[in-house]
Amino acid sequence: MFPRRCSQFRRSLHLSPKCQHLVGPNDPVSNLRPIIYTDTPNSPPKSNSQGKLNHPYSLQEFSDGPPSPNHALELQYKLKREQLDALNHKYWAESNTRFEAGKASVLASIPESASPETREHALSEFLKKWVVQERDRQEVYSTEWRTRNFEVIALGARLEYHRLKQRIFG
């Protein structure tokens, strides 16, 4: 009897919610694999194995009872997390597009009869200039990404703390 209570108490203190986020295929431009969050209203539908009728709306979006005490914090966390992903995707898509355009112009400027060493040298010079040219932009992006990532982590920690308090004290 005691071990059962103990295991139930340990399970009630378990901090991670039961969800499985999905990872999509690489984006052809940004080369990032998008995360499909399964704890959001836009999540892919779960299988209908219990024979329930299909509904024209996502019933997961609506709840019968009052919203949870953490509803606003959960929503803020999910929005910040998706905004961070969008920032990351946008930056790398733009950066890779500009890089590929610059690389193509360098390769187009080299005559067809050029040796492989000449092409390699031109590309290495382009890459060296590219790194110097992009340094400031990369630093601005990195600072912004770190700041937003810390905000998402802090929100997630606050949310989990509130959930833990709710489990313990009701």
Automatic annotation (TrEMBL):
Predominant subcellular localization, coarse grouping: mitochondrion
Pfam families attached to this UniProt entry: COA8 (PF10231)
Domain of life (superkingdom): Eukaryota
Record flagged with keyword Membrane: yes
Residue numbers spanned by region Disordered: 33-71
Subcellular location: Mitochondrion inner membrane
GO cellular component: mitochondrial inner membrane
Keywords: Membrane, Mitochondrion, Mitochondrion inner membrane, Transit peptide
Sequence ranges of Polar residues compositional bias: 39-52
Membrane topology type: Peripheral membrane protein
Family note: Belongs to the COA8 family.
Protein name: Uncharacterized protein
Organism of origin: Scleroderma citrinum Foug A
